[in-house]
Design goal:
Number of strands: 2
Number of domains: 2
Order of helices and strands: HHHHEHHHHE
Strand content: under 5%
Helix content: over 70%
Structural class: mainly alpha
Shape: flat
Length: 302
């Protein structure tokens, strides 16, 4: 790793971690908005109500206006976190263009998400827009996690620590993970937690059917995670990959357990929120495992 100043060594890891934490946090506050039926607590955008950017006493939305406004406010926090990180990288890590580019992606994603959030409100919480909003957040979280762990490695090109077949399987795993996330958003969009307690918005899919499709995709995903973990244990050419994929397997199994329990218990709000956190955690550990499955420079000697 390049010789950063003492300030860089102290603050860059913290800023990278803060950026990731707030990105996960806004997913949870967005989930809280949805689960409390507060999606239209601020019925307009960018203002909360016509003539005011903040909730007013006269609003009829009650506690919902504060929950929705709180989520909107956190958008500013994640934007500031990404901007501060970008400035810090330009100041202390100009030799890490991959980190700078990744942070630009995060900052641009946050700006785009603010617009998508406005479209969500103006379309009356259209479930397709809400689902797209969530999936975009997952992409930003994955990028933020990649930044955090890539920073800990040296600059320059990286090489895989895994057998080529295992490495190709990891990309298949990532593809299936996207399918699992998409189906998961469709499950939510087809169920009772629409985001607005008065006028639920549904995708039109049968909740039971789409839930089982989601479960089938999860089963395939678990099989791929096991395959990659075993492949890493047998072929890794350096320390780290097998342990990293073991963490992915543990989070996957925990997330699957929460998913089945929430389905069998009729989707209690606390478990739905836990499942959303699990989805974010799974994206984080997958990004981490991908980074740790590669090494800068030449491969270690066999």
């Amino acid at each position: 790793m390049s010789e950063y100043s003492a300030a860089a060594r102290t603050w860059l890891p913290r800023l990278l971690l803060i950026n990731l934490v707030v990105e996960v946090g806004i997913v949870l506050t967005g989930g809280l908005v949805r689960l409390t039926g507060s999606g239209l607590g601020c019925p307009t955008w960018p203002q909360c109500v016509p003539g005011s950017y903040v909730p007013t006493v006269e609003q009829a939305e009650g506690i919902h206006k504060f929950i929705e406004f709180g989520n909107r406010t956190l958008t500013g926090v994640v934007g500031i976190a990404a901007l501060v990180l970008l400035i810090a990288l330009y100041r202390w890590a100009r030799d890490r263009p991959e980190l700078i580019l990744g942070t630009w992606v995060v900052l641009g994603g946050v700006a785009a998400q603010a617009i998508v959030g406005g479209i969500t409100v103006r379309t009356g919480l259209n479930p397709w827009i809400v689902g797209f909003h969530f999936l975009c957040s997952m992409a930003i979280i994955g990028t933020s996690a990649w930044l955090l762990w890539r920073y800990r490695q040296s600059a320059g090109p990286t090489r895989s620590l895994l057998h080529p077949l295992v490495e190709r399987t990891t990309w298949l795993l990532c593809t299936v993970a996207v399918v699992v996330l998409v189906l998961g958003t469709l499950v939510t969009g087809s169920g009772p937690h629409s985001g607005d307690a008065d006028t639920p918005a549904r995708t039109g899919f049968d909740p039971r059917t789409i839930s089982w499709l989601h479960a089938d995709a999860v089963m395939l995903f678990i099989g791929l995670v096991v395959a990659v973990w075993l492949g890493a244990k047998l072929t890794e050419r350096g320390p780290g990959p097998a342990r990293a994929w073991a963490v992915v397997l543990a989070v996957t199994l925990a997330q699957g357990l929460v998913g089945y329990v929430q389905y069998l218990t009729k989707l209690p709000e606390v478990l739905v929120l836990a499942h959303m956190f699990g989805a974010a955690a799974l994206v984080v550990v997958i990004a981490r495992a991908i980074v740790l499955s590669r090494t800068p420079g030449p491969l270690p000697a066999d």
